[in-house]
Amino acid sequence: MTDADLPFDLTKLDQLAEVIVRVGLNLQPGQNLLISAPVEALPLVRRVAAAAYRAGAGVVTPLLSDEEVTLARYRHGQDASFDAAAGWLFRGMAEAYDEGAARLAISADNPMLLKGQDPAKVARANKATSIASRPAMEKITGFETNWCVASYPGRAWARQVFAGIPEDEAVGKLAEAIFAASRLNNNDPVAEWSAHDARLQKRMKWLDDQRFSALHFRAPGTDLKVGLADNHSWKGGTGVTKTGITCLANIPTEEVFTTPHAQRVDGTARASKPLVHQGTLIENIEVRFEAGRIVEARASSGEEVLQKLLDTDEGARRLGEVALVPHSSPISHSGLLFFNTLFDENAACHIALGQCYSECFTDEVAADNAAIAASGGNSSLIHVDWMIGSGETDIDGIRADGTVVPVFRKGEWA
Ligand code: ZN
Ligand code: ZN
């Protein structure tokens, strides 16, 4: 199959590559670039490589994955192999970041690839990968280099999002949805992104100035007080790396987010969208928090996978992120369930179980793991976002002196 056979507008794919390199990564002259992507996303990988070299890149290195190779492991791999991971690869990645390489991850995979595989093996393999990749991941979450996550309309993914229509049509529709969410709908997407980023920065400044000690979420099934970490700082849109490069880590992105206090979350939360985790659809999640910890969790389907997830480690039952997204965001407007966190988390307010982001603290605290923990930052091998926001969500900000300030009403900024 050649690029000309792809059922979508290739000029939009060129634009996406340009936005990834110029806005997402803001790749610097001479900088090396590491790209991980599924084989299917090669048409985008090649365009990104071309755009990167035009921008003066040093060496561009693609790391390709393949769904059939992943499945071969589950079909034929020895049992002991599920506790192993390619540590050498992650050590090499960490070394590349230390030397200043930028990082791009392109997601296009079938979200249900591992459906039907033994959930215990999936969990073991994921845990082994989380442990082995931690030294490299910490450099990414700590913004030690510029990085970006973007998407490509993979065929199996498209069939999942648009079930029951011919495959080419589904791929075309998913491509349109990705391009629209990536703000490629006018002639100057780079300018469009800078205006969007300015709006997000304004929201973050307002939230930072309020110094809320907690947020109170109310919606059907949800009555949740999320204490915010001491010294928290709101993040969203572009961020600045420790090396001083401004990059946009997620394309698309609509959220502003910060760190909850790991010991100060109380009440109930009901998911407003299903969560896709390791090929399992977890529906109608309901949880109850006490002193920051999930003490009760239910789901109408996929509950076993949810419980396994919560049992990963102590931090898996506590929150590492709280994020605000208005119901009128373009992704929410599409009305689609993307089965992909990058999109679905930008459609609704959400919370994340597990690891917090060190960048969501004030500068003095962000560089010091002990200070992060002392301020209430959570630590875990997992970071899993799930949606609690809808058009019915009301949120109040609560200051330390008890003052209540409306933040969201009926899913929109108050
Ligand atoms: Zn988020
Ligand atoms: Zn998250």
Protein described:
It is a single chain. The protein is α+β, with helices and mostly antiparallel strands. The chain folds into 2 domains: 179 residues, Thermophilic metalloprotease (M29) (Thermophilic metalloprotease-like, 3-Layer(aba) Sandwich), CATH 3.40.1830; 183 residues, no CATH class. The strands form 5 sheets. The protein has an 8-stranded antiparallel sheet with strand order 15-14-11-6-5-19-20-21, with helices on one face. Helix 1 packs across helix 2. The longest helix is centred in the N-terminal third of the chain and has 23 residues. The protein is globular and about 60 Å long. It starts with 9 loop residues before the first helix and ends with a strand. The model has no long low-confidence stretch (mean pLDDT 95). The structure holds zinc ion (2 copies). One zinc ion (ZN) binds next to strand 18. The site of one zinc ion has 4 residues, from strand 18.
